[in-house]
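ok here's YiiX/YebB-like N1pC/P60 family cysteine hydrolase:
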Amino acid sequence: MRRGDVVFVQGKGIISQIIRYFDKGKFSHCAVVASHDMVIEADYNTRVALRRFQVDKYNIIEVIDLGLTWEQRSSVYKSAMGHIGKRYDYVQLLWYMIRKVFRVKGHNRLNNPKHLICSELVFLVLDEMGVLDELKIRDSFFRGIDLTPNELYDLVRYVAKSKPLKIPTR
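and the structure:
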């Protein structure tokens, strides 16, 4: 893991199982890598924070390298650190359940812009870095803050496969 990478994981706990049930994918959480053993994450039981990455907490781990330069990696880190302290958005999880159970379309009216979930944090950081503008897919995912971890995984895999990127340093 290197600063600026994105890590997707499948947790072992009950919350992870619930998220995977409604999200219908293999991942239940994602984060921005800060260093070889630290991540910046929005976790369900705390605020957005810089934490030690504990490998033993997960069944599956996948790290995606976006091919960033060191300067760009530093910018990703700074962008993610700018969200430290924001509360977790439990109501947004409720929206995912409603959306899946009732097959509701449209953007999440329950999303609080002052609170974040893990996939929203990663999307915002990628968006702030201009990754989505460069690939001209920003419009397709204009409500990217509403993506689940597995929907975001598909987007990040697409971004990683669309090399080379010329991401502006901000």
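+1. The chain has one domain: 6-161.
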